[in-house]
Every structure is written in structure tokens, then in C-alpha cells.
Amino acid sequence: MIRLNDITSLVQNYHPKADIELIEKAYVFSAKVHQGQIRLSGEPYLSHPLEAAYILAQLKMDVVCIAAGLLHDAVEDSDASLEEIRGLFGEETATIVDGVTKISKMQFVSKEQRQAENVRKMILAMSTDIRVILVKLADRLHNMRTLGFQPEAKQIRIATETLDIYAPLAGRMGINWIKSSLEDLCLFYLEPEIYAKIKDETAQRRGEMEKFMTEVKGILSAKLEESNIQAVIKARQKHFYSIYRKMLDQDLNVNQVYDILAFRVIVNSIKECYEILGHIHSIWKPVPGRFKDYISVPKANMYQSLHTTVIGPLGQRMEIQIRTWEMNRVAESGIAAHWKYKEGSIATQADHKQFTWLQQLLDWQKNLKDPQEFLESVKMDLFPDDVYVFTPRGEVKSFPKGATIIDFAYSIHSEIGEKCVGAKVNGKMVPLRYQLKNGNIVEITTSAKQHPNKDWLKFVKTSRAKTKIRQWIRTEEREEGINFGRTILEKALQQEGLGQINVLKSEQIAAVAKELSFHSVEDLIAQIGFGKTSPRQVVGRIKPRFDIKADRSQGLVSKMVSRFRKPRPEHGIKVNGVSDMLIHFAKCCSPLPGERVVGFITRGRGITIHLESCAHIQNADPDRLVPISWDPTTKESYSASLRVTSVERKGILADISTIISQKDANIIHAEVKTTVDNKGISFFTLEVESYKQLQDIVSAIKKVKNVLIVERL
Ligand code: MN
């Protein structure tokens, strides 16, 4: 077990002036709050924070970070409060502990790659201080090392999460040794058989490898001595997980992976790096396409080296990395390699430059504060413009800072957005304007009655939500425009005597719309509704197109049929057997379905239907009369008026009304008058479907007490 002394002496090695007291104080506090707690391994709980702190010391972290490492489980796993830690150890330490506690409380499900990436970003975004991530990585590394004491299901869950989330995070931080340690531990728990095979195979080949290593080192050293270059040659076996990846990617068995050794040559200057590369390529044949110059083009995390693969002395591939000592330091400890600059020393121009890798590394897009200021404060907002929240099912979604629950709702589905009335965030109701915060669990509440509102545009942040809301408003306004436009256009048509024709569905208006360069008749009508096109202008263009001259030789009826065809029969009438004619019913006799009727062809207003007995058509031009039949399949309503004369009696109107509704007819209008001789005269305008229905109603009313006469008007 690691002891306090191991940590403090390590710290004093790389930072002699460090305030060791803070670490000691944190140790005492941690020992006190975790007293009596035991790990599943049987060790006292304190061993865990000590190990984590030791890993942080190996990363050469500052004392605040190491203290936070010792305290990292105090809030979550003991009675200690964050306030206590803040009071005893200061704001910085408390912030780190708080960040680690928050991340530890979350369980990440990461079914897909994209999701894992979001989780990693979320952790970064939640870590306002980058040391939060480093403590979390140290915590996870020790937990992975002791995972064997956990039940199997938990082993798999933790190992999966580590492989998906924490190993890549360590890689992004540039801390390669933590990354490979985590990966190998994950492989051990997730693919135990493959892990064992790789272990066996590499052990069996150890002798062979040693021999090979010595040979390569010997050849190289001789060459370097010859050229007078001081260099250290290191050979190492690749970590198991990278051998496993190789097997997967190239579909190989363990014993088919030859290049399990990697060589590294470390020199003093960049010039020497390229020189050595030349020597190596002169000794062994390089494999085409495998040379990478990360010195002139560093990786996003500032990693620099030359990589090459050559055909080695035994005819097998071998990888060689060439780098300077400074590059080696960065490659091994990543972000931690820069930490010494934090502690009060003056940052040089070069340091600024080195720190820019962090910006690239973390996709920093917006202009960052002065790097120096940033160094001093150590506080970092790694993704200043993003927040990450959970769906109820544990999926992580990212949003721009300031995004509201409306943005969240629209990100799920535009219908959810439109119907969103609020949300539960971490189980509590919040209003529409609520701004999402990192780690929120958001559950949207919808209502069928809800619809988007112009005000929403004032606070939504995502372009998706904005676009969808605008779209909705436009559609809504257009509908209103069309409705209003239709009303005023119909009025204008009526004034010009075109009221009886279904102009709005005619070819004529379509032609006018085209002439005025509208895409459709609807567009034209909407523009009238918005007041952008004058109805008069439109009517002026439509009217001449309806000016029909009677032409008997061509057959008036067939001409009418083509002129006034309606898209849909609405009246249950067939003219010469054709049902989609523009017709209307004569007001003088108001014919009902089933009654004997005749059609009269008007000039420009379609066909008027009269009762055969109507006085108005008795002297009409026989050429303009057409036979009419009722279409029994159509159900439409027609109006009919009745006059009921009765002895005046209270309630008679109600009685008659009841009869009418019992017969399934609507009363559009009713009026009662009393005559001087105490008779009541009631007028009814009804909506009926047929002549027969009207006859039924009339005979029923006649049976009502005190009714004297029922007449049709
Ligand atoms: Mn822990």
C-alpha cells in the first residue's frame, strides 16, 4: 500500500518548494472521514485515495491537485460536506472535488461511437478545471487495477465504460501510459481468453524477442557511433490492447502478429532525428506508406516524433520512433508535461505556443482569453459554448450554451417541439425558458393544445428549433391569409356578378394567377389576404374570361359542362346525367331532392334549378331548359321554409322545434308572431336532406296540439 511519505517525497523531487502541508492536511482529513471503511479488497478505504494521489504525483501535478486526489471520495462516500472541504482546503480544491463527485455520480451508457464522443465532451464540459479530469483518470486507473474484487456484472460495466470513455480521454490528454494501462485492464475483463492468449504467446516468444532486440540495438548503436550521434535506444513490447487491435484490424491470430516490439530512439536535437532516420532507412528497407513526420506536423495534442516501419534483420516488420528528449516528455505525460509552468514561473513565448495544443485538442473554437491569464488561473472552460444533458433514457445530447428546453424538445422531434409546454429537469418542473445546464436529466412535457409562438424565437438557441418555429408560423399565417383572402375575393366577385360561379376553383382564375406570376391560385389568394394584391385587379382580369355568348349550334349544355365543371359534386344533382356542373337552386321555389325539377341555363352563372311547376320558367326559352335528375347517393342539405299557423299557446314553439329535431333536421332560423285574433304564426327555415324528409316533418307538425295550418313557403 502506498504511504503518505511515498507521495510527498515524489512531489518534492519535481517541486522542491511545494507546500507539502496541504497534502498532509488532506491526508489527515481523508483518513478521518474514511475511518472504518473497507474496500472490497479488504484494504482500508484510505488506500484508494492514496493510490489516486500517488498516480497524480507520478503525473507531476501540483499540490492542490494531489490534495484533491486524497479528498476525491470524501463528499460522495463519507459524511464530509463540500463546505467543510472549501473551508479547510480552499476554493480550488473544493471545485475539483465537486467536479469529480458530479462525474462519479453519473452512469454513462455508450452504445454507439457518437454517443461515447458526446459523453467525453460532457465530462470535459463539466470539468471547469482540467485537474478534475486528471483526478478522475487517477481514480479510474486505481479502480480498474482493483476491479477483480467486484462482481462480474460490474466488472463488465466498468470496463466497458472505461474503454469507451476514460481511455480515449486519457489519450486526448496525451497521457499515453494511463491510456495503455486502462486499455490493457479493460481487455483483461472484457476479452479474458484473448488477453490470456496474447500473454502466453508473447511470453513464449520472449527469448526470440530478446535476441532480436539485442541484434537491432547492436546494428543501430554501431551506426550511431560511426556518425557521432548520442542517442538512447529503447525497445519495448507493445501493449496488449494494441496487439489485439492489430489482430482485429488485419484479421490475424496472435502468432501472426510479428511486430509486437517497437523501438524508440531518443536524441538531443531535431536535426539528429532526421539524420538517424536517414541511417535507419539505409540499413533496413522502409515499408512504403508507413513513414509519418509528426515533427513538422505535430498531432493535435502536440505529440511530435518521426515514425517509420522497416523490414528488420529477420525479414520482419519493425516500427521505430525517433524523437528528442523534450518530445519524449510531452509524449509520455501529455498535458501534465506542461504543468510546471503553472507554479509561479514566468511563462515564455515557447510555453504559450505549447499551450495552444490544448486549444486545438479540445476543439476550442471561440477566441480564448490570454493564454497567460489562463495559465495563472488554471480554470478552464473546455467547451465554453456547449452544454451536455441527458434524455430520460440516458442518452447524452449537446446544445449551445443558453439553449432552452424548447431546443431540447425540437432536437427529439419537431412535433415534440411544437407541443412542448414545459419539462421536468432532474425531476422538477421548469418553464419553457429554462436554460439547460450540464448534466441535467430532461423530460419534456407536451400538450395537444400547445403550438409554437413567435416569442419562442426570442429565447431558442439552436438553428433547428428556430427554423422549425418559423416554418410553423409561416404556415399558420399563410392559412389565415388564404382564409381572409378568399373572403374578400368572394365579396369582390359577388359585386361583379360572379358570385354564383365557383370562380376560385375555375381554370380562369388559375390562368390569372399564372399571368400574375403566382405559383398557384392559393398563393394568389394568400397575397390578397396579406393585402399585397388588390382583389379588384384580380376580378378585373377574371371577369372577361367568363363572358359566354350563347351559341346554340355548338350545344349549350356541353359547352356549359366544360366551362363550369366543378371538381366535386356537392349538390346531388345530375344535369343530362353529368354531376359536376356548376348549379344553384332558384330562390323563387327552393326545390328539394326528390321534387320534380328542371334546369335553366343562365348566361354566365351556370344552371339554375327550378321546380317544374315554378311560375318563373313557364314561359322560358325551351332551348335553355335541361332535364335534371337527383343523384340518390349524395347526402347534402337544402334549406326549406315553413309557416305554421296555430292557436296561441305557451310552449308550442318548443313542441314544434322538438319534432323538427326528432326528424333529424336543423333549424337555421325560427320566428314567432302573434296576430290580433290570438293566433300564433311561426316561421321556420330548416336544413333538410330530401323532399321526403320535409314531407315527414310537415305531417308531424300537423299532429301537434293546436296547430292549424302548415305551409311550405
Ligand atoms: Mn474514487
How are the secondary structure elements laid out?
Elements: H1 4-14, H2 20-33, H3 47-58, H4 63-71, H5 74-77, H6 82-89, H7 91-105, H8 113-126, H9 131-145, H10 152-172, H11 176-190, H12 192-204, H13 206-226, E1 232-237, H14 240-250, E2 261-267, H15 270-283, E3 285-286, E4 292-293, E5 306-311, E6 317-324, H16 325-333, H17 349-361, H18 371-377, E7 386-390, E8 396-400, H19 405-412, H20 414-418, E9 420-425, E10 428-430, E11 442-446, H21 456-459, H22 463-495, H23 507-515, H24 521-529, H25 535-542, H26 556-564, E12 573-575, E13 583-585, E14 597-601, E15 607-611, E16 625-630, E17 638-647, H27 652-662, E18 666-674, E19 679-688, H28 691-702, E20 707-712
Parallel strand pairs: 2-6, 13-15
Antiparallel strand pairs: 1-2, 3-5, 4-5, 5-6, 7-8, 9-10, 9-11, 12-16, 14-15, 14-16, 17-19, 17-20, 18-19
Helix pairs in contact: 1-2, 1-3, 2-4, 3-4, 3-9, 4-7, 4-9, 6-7, 7-9, 8-10, 9-10, 9-11, 10-11, 11-12, 12-14, 22-24, 22-25
The structure holds manganese (II) ion.
Briefly say what this structure is.
It contains 28 helices and 20 strands.
Total DSSP E strands: 20
- Percent of residues in helical segments? 40-55%
Shape: elongated
In whole angstroms, the N-to-C terminal distance is 109 Å
Count of DSSP-assigned helices: 28
